[in-house]
């Protein structure tokens, strides 16, 4: 069973930055497509960003484009989300997620629906003060 452990959340002023990390267990990290989602109490989980298995394909929620950057370090089994110019509306619990991929596909696919993912981290809280 793959385990994902998210970290890096915290309290930041509007305009500030945070970098979220998501560490994965096991030796198959490089075979997963990965993503970040966020969720506020009483609301549905919202897609934030995704990255393909080979790192070449990325996707972002429109409202975070130009401010957030997703990346992965396969040698460290870690997924990142660099968040700059944070706004109060970015405050949420952020979750990382992983999806098994077909070994013979191009590796360029990324996934934006929460139902596409097979396993999830525990969430890390991001709070942005105005």
Order of helices and strands: EEEEEEEEEEE
Question: How many individual helices?
Answer: 0
Overall average residue pLDDT: 96
Low-confidence stretches: none
Judging from the principal axes of the Cα atoms, what is the shape?
globular
What structural class do helix, strand and pairing data support?
A: mainly beta
Rg: 14 Å
| Beta-strand segment tally | 11
Percent helix, as a range, is under 10%
Spell out the key features of this protein:
mainly beta, 4-stranded antiparallel β-sheet
In short:
The chain is mainly beta and 130 residues long. It has strands spanning 4-7, 10-13, 18-24, 32-39, 46-51, 58-60, 68-73, 78-83, 92-100, 119-120, 124-129. 0% of the residues lie in helices and 47% in strands.
Your description of this structure?
- There is one protein chain.
- By secondary structure, the protein is mostly beta strands.
- The chain contains no helices and eleven strands.
- Strands 2, 4, 5, 6, 9, 10 and 11 form a seven-stranded mixed beta sheet that branches.
- A hairpin with a 4-residue loop joins strand 7 (68-73) and strand 8 (78-83).
- The N and C termini lie far apart (40 Å).
- The mean pLDDT is 96.
List strands and helices in order, with pairings.
Layout: E1 4-7, E2 10-13, E3 18-24, E4 32-39, E5 46-51, E6 58-60, E7 68-73, E8 78-83, E9 92-100, E10 119-120, E11 124-129
Parallel strand pairs: 2-11
Antiparallel strand pairs: 1-3, 3-8, 4-5, 4-9, 5-6, 7-8, 9-10, 9-11
